[in-house]
Amino acid sequence: MGKKSKVYYCDPKYIVTDKYTDKEVVYVHPIKHINREHIRYVPRHVYKEETIHEVIDPGDPGKCGCKKQKKRRKK
Is the pLDDT score of 73 beyond 80? Predict the structure, then answer.
């Protein structure tokens, strides 16, 4: 038999096969709906009507208020 040959070991070369598996990750995005009711003050004019009946009494007339006419003398 012959002499055994010397064996040298080199650094290994890597052959990588990547496999991807999907895994769900949940991201929560909160949405808040805000319903606002704004109060606007609008003027409403209301008029209160009132009717007043007045009776005006001038009082006792006493004199008739006519001017006295002078009598004409005959010539």
Answer: no
60-68 own/partner pairs: CB under 8 Å, 24+ apart: none
Residue 8 DSSP class: -
pLDDT of 47 over the 90 cut = yes
pTM over 0.70: no
3-state secondary structure 17-66: CCCCCCCCCCCCCCCCCCCCCCCCCCCCCCCCCCCCCCCCCCCCCCCCCC
